[in-house]
């Protein structure tokens, strides 16, 4: 078997991450989070690219140290080409190209959304093809039919907001800092999921919509605060539990429909929102009821990380699938 050491760079949004993959095993996965966006309710692209620029070299050094690898031992450089914020992607892509040029290494281009799914191939148990993957992040919500490593088909997706956006926009309404998903998850643990009811969108087929839910939460909070100015603070746990319950129900109902439609019982979740405890336990309950084999990623591989870019890069490297120095990032990379 060919010995391969892949260095992978992820910079599509607000995490600067570098991982090393040694013959398919992740030996380093360094992630520098950006706290600068906390008070803005979302990622500010201009600030994100500047912080990537500051973080990239220290993160590269840390990854090489963690993996006990010398630059000379690297066989290929993998990087996120898109989708994502253009200014953020440019930092990672430019760095990857310079690094590869300096060391005369091949370049491997990775689609960030493929990589979220392929994170399931980092550790055991690895899913068997074909499987369905619900990929839920801050920018995307997709049900993907995964036939092989790079043979994937989107069979359902959001028509407006992503599930992570629904969490983050609700958090903003509740005056919680960005990213709101993990905080809503934390408060929800102490609340009653049936305290408040929000309508489920009536969308045909396997597509999603979350913008109506966000609006109904906003109107509900405004109406309640007219009666009690402290409503949000007084009922924070119940509001978070009820919102989380609604989002998880919407996600799982379509996933159930997709599984029945395609006759597939190997089911995975991926992306930042797959860290949500309500989604993880809801999926497990469905698995028990419907005899599904489910794949739930380790927390460290749910939100953005370069380990998933490294494993995707490794499988492309094995196929000899390289790109030239003329490669450029794409904020909307084709699936
Ligand atoms: O995959 P990711 O790190 O970045 C994108 O590619 O967008 O996902 C980030 C999203 C954010 O919207 C964040 O609020 C959400 O994942 N998220 C969560 C949780 N952890 C992260 N949402 C709900 N519950 C969580 N525990
Ligand atoms: Zn992501």
Which CATH first-tier class of the largest domain would you pick?
Alpha Beta
**Strand fraction:** 15-25%
Please work out how many helical segments DSSP would assign: 10
Q: If strands are numbered along the chain, what order do they take across the biggest sheet?
A: 3-2-1-4-5
Calculate Rg over CA atoms: 20 Å
Descriptive report:
Helix 2 links the parallel strand 4 (76-82) and strand 5 (107-111). The strands form two sheets. A five-stranded mixed sheet has the order 3-2-1-4-5, with helices on both faces. It has helices at 45-67, 86-103, 112-118, 163-173, 180-188, 211-227, 231-234, 236-262, 277-290, 307-319, and strands at 5-10, 15-22, 25-33, 76-82, 107-111, 131-136, 141-148, 151-157, 266-270, 293-295. Helices cover 43% and strands 19% of the residues. It folds into two domains: 5-118 and 304-319, ATPase, nucleotide binding domain (Nucleotidyltransferase, domain 5); 126-296, ATPase, nucleotide binding domain (Nucleotidyltransferase, domain 5, 2-Layer Sandwich), CATH 3.30.420.40. The chain has 335 residues and is α/β, with parallel strands linked by helices. It is globular. It binds 5'-O-[(R)-(carboxyoxy)(hydroxy)phosphoryl]adenosine and zinc ion. The site of zinc ion (ZN) has 6 residues, from helix 3.
Short structural description:
The protein is α/β, with parallel strands linked by helices. The protein is built from ten helices and ten strands. It is globular and about 65 Å long.
């Amino acid at each position: 078997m060919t010995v391969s050491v892949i260095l992978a760079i992820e910079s599509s949004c607000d995490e600067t991450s570098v991982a090393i993959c040694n013959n398919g095993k992740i030996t380093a996965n360094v992630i520098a989070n950006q706290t600068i966006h906390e008070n803005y309710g979302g990622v500010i692209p201009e600030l994100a690219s500047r912080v990537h620029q500051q973080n990239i070299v220290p993160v590269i050094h840390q990854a090489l140290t963690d993996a006990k690898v010398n630059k000379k031992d690297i066989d290929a450089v993998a990087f996120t080409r898109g989708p994502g914020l253009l200014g953020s992607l440019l930092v990672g892509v430019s760095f990857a190209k310079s690094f590869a040029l300096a060391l005369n290494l091949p370049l491997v281009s990775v689609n960030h959304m493929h990589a979220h799914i392929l994170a399931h191939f980092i550790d055991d148990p690895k899913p068997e093809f074909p499987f369905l993957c619900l990929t839920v992040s801050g920018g995307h919500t997709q049900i993907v039919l995964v036939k092989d490593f790079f043979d994937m088909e989107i069979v359902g997706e959001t028509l407006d907001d992503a599930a992570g956006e629904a969490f983050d926009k609700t958090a903003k309404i509740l005056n919680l800092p960005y990213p709101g998903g993990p905080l809503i998850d934390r408060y929800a643990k102490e609340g009653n999921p049936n305290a408040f009811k929000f309508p489920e969108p009536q969308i045909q087929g396997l597509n999603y919509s979350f913008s109506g839910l966000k609006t109904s939460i906003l109107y509900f909070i405004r109406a309640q605060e007219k009666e009690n100015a402290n409503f949000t603070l007084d009922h924070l746990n119940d509001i978070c539990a009820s919102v989380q319950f609604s989002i998880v129900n919407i996600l799982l109902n379509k996933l159930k429909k997709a599984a029945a439609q395609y006759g597939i019982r190997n089911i995975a979740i991926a992306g930042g929102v797959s860290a949500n405890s309500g989604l993880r336990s809801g999926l497990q309950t469905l698995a028990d009821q419907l005899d599904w084999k489910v794949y739930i990623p380790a927390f460290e591989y749910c939100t953005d990380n370069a380990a998933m870019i490294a494993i995707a890069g490794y499988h492309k490297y094995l196929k000899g699938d390289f790109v030239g120095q003329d490669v450029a990032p794409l904020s909307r990379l084709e699936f």
